[in-house]
Specification:
CATH topology of the domain at 69-127 and 163-273: Rossmann fold
Order of helices and strands: HHHEHEHHHEHHEEHEH
CATH architecture of the domain at 69-127 and 163-273: 3-Layer(aba) Sandwich
Strand order of the largest sheet: 2-1-3-4-5-6
Structural class: alpha/beta
Number of strands: 6
Largest sheet: 6 strands, mixed
Length: about 280
């Protein structure tokens, strides 16, 4: 996969998230934009696979981005180990389909490396996609499946399409009393603030966002709620240079670390990471 293809996919995914958010807000063009972005990402990924099979293997680009992901996780892990030593951690991960099942998550691998033995991972858990949502999404996706009874394309409905506060609470409820720090690689549900009984309750765990939108979460950054988050750096540098050996230098090429303490400075330097007025 070439550098340009990686950038196109990243932009397409961002467009998909924005489109689905606008759809939920009642804006008519949100859904078409999301679908177009998903199709673009799939087409680019498919074209990359075809070229790779044809001998044009640009695995170095993919390996480099995986390394950046691991370093992003490691940075958060080191921070949590320093500030929340002894915590019991529940890690939320995105569910996987078919051939994706069992594949390692570089963010989680880096997180665990950074935390070391200072924190205890209680479990890694994934929410289950509701059957009706999966079925409805399959009907809406023009690239889902093939004609004449062919095998369906492995395509997970976007989290924004089905990941609700109710599903979030049900998943965390399975580990009630077993953890005090939640690390999420899938962010929080869009309706979490108004719909999650757990987040409103007295026993709300501390939260670290390893991946996922923090756009509407500025007010939640406090010592009793969101204690840290990794988010993409709006000034990220994409080039063909090797990943820097220095952790902080490499991290800064892709990510920002946001904490209750650094929020004023980081937010001021990068105003687009939060919704205006929050």
């Amino acid at each position: 996969m070439s550098f340009i293809q990686v950038v196109i996919i990243v932009v397409a995914v961002i467009g998909m998230v924005v489109g689905l958010s606008k759809q939920k807000a009642g804006i008519e063009w949100g859904k078409p934009v999301a679908i177009v972005c998903i199709v673009v990402a799939l087409v680019v990924a498919l074209w990359s696979s075809v070229r790779t099979l044809g001998g044009n293997n640009n695995a170095g680009v993919v390996d480099r981005e995986i390394t950046f992901q691991k370093l992003g996780g490691k940075k958060l892990g080191l921070y949590l180990a320093e500030k929340h030593a002894g915590a019991k951690v529940l890690i939320l991960t995105e569910p996987k389909l078919g051939s994706q099942t069992g594949k390692p998550n570089p963010l989680v691998e880096g997180l665990k490396e950074g935390m070391g033995s200072t924190l205890t991972v209680v479990a890694e858990a994934s929410p289950e996609v509701p059957a009706d949502k999966a079925k409805a999404f399959a009907k809406e996706m023009p690239m889902e499946g093939t004609p004449s009874g062919g095998a369906a394309t492995e395509m997970m409905p976007p989290l924004e399409y089905w990941y609700t506060a109710k599903i979030f609470d049900a998943l965390l409820g399975k580990y009630d009393g077993q953890f005090d720090l939640l690390v999420t690689t899938i962010g929080l549900p869009q309706d979490a603030a108004r719909g999650s009984a757990i987040l409103k309750g007295k026993s709300c765990p501390k939260i670290a966002v390893l991946n996922g939108s923090i756009y509407d979460l500025k007010a939640a950054f406090k010592p009793t709620m969101i204690v840290a988050a990794i988010t993409y750096n709006p000034k990220a540098v994409y080039d063909d240079k090797p990943v820097p050996r220095d952790l902080d230098e490499a991290f800064g090429k892709r990510f920002l670390l946001v904490t209750p303490e650094t929020l004023p400075a980081v937010g001021s330097a990068n105003p687009d990471i939060f919704r205006s007025g929050n």
